[in-house]
Structures are given as structure tokens and as C-alpha cells.
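Record type: monomer structure entry
Structure origin: computed from sequence
Chain ID: A
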Amino acid sequence: MTAVDERPITSSIATFFEDLEVPEGYKAELLRGDIVMMAGPDRVHNGIVESVQDQIPRKRWRRLQTQDIAIPGETSEPQPDLVVLARGAEDGPGRLIPAPAVTLLVEVVSKTSVDRDYGIKRSMYAAGGVPAYLIIDPMAALCLLLTEPARKGEAADYRTTRTTKFGETATLEMLGVELDTSDFETLPDIRRHYRP
């Protein structure tokens, strides 16, 4: 697979996003033509991402935070909480990693990202052909592993889902990892959500 140095700009929103100056302490994502800006993550969020990253063998896998992804056929440049790809799958320069080079994407749900993580990102990552998407929800104290992406565009979704409660082991076959969730902290379920 070759590196993506520059993605063709197909709309004015994509041009605007490329030039956007994001205030310190915030991050911005382009999600199906909408620019979404959010505050930096909290300690619980960062602790979960650190725990997941530490359990994925560095020798075989690249584990990248703050990495933008290019989704083919989408006006989207999300920045998942953790991007996992095989070493050598994408070694070139550039700001974007093409979604087809990725093995697993991880999002840790926050009170403001619930709908995006369970909704639009689920559809976008499936549309991009990402083989596995792991949603970690510290409010519901569970992990949802989605595999087998199908269809394109807004109709895209994953065929297979597996739920693991915090404290149990989540099997990540695609990485050969048994993910220990026993040290994942929780957050109060501030607003009731009905996902998954």
C-alpha cells in the first residue's frame, strides 16, 4: 500500500478543514462534511486508551493516537482515539492513513461523543472497510467489538457485534490479543443513552 500525501480536495468544506486552526486543547474532525470540534479527553478516557495501547504488542502493530484517517469515497477525516495497523502496512509520509491500511480503530465514548461513536463513526468506518471497530464505553462499562464491514456510504454497517463487560476479557482475534478490561475506569452515566 502506498502513502497518501495529499487527498484531492473535492469540496469547499474539505478545503476549509485542511486550513482550520484548532485552538490548543481541542481536536477537530471532518465527519461526512461536518466539522466537529471537541475538548480534549479526560483522565479516565486517557487511562483506557493507554491500557489498550499497552496490551497490543508494539513489535507487530503500530498503535497511533492523534492520527487522522482518510475514508475512501467520504468527505471525512476522523481522528480515532487509537489506530492500529500492521507494521509495514503504511510507512510513507503524510497526515492521513487510508482506512484500508488499518486493522482496528478504537473510540472511547464520552458524554458528548455517544451518538458519533455509536452512530456516524460506526457507519463511516464500515464504509471505509476497516475490519474491526472497538467502542469502549466507560458510562455503560462495556466494550463493543464490531467486525465484518458491509455496504457503502451511509448504509454501511458491521455484520458482527460482540459485547464484553468491563472486568471481562475482550478477545481481539484480528490482533491475537486477549484485552484485559479489569483496570478500565468508569464514568457516571450522566445522560441515559440507549446504545448499543
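Annotation 1: Residues 43-180 form a domain with the tt1808, chain A fold (CATH 3.90.1570.10).
Annotation 2: The first helix runs from residue 12 to 19.
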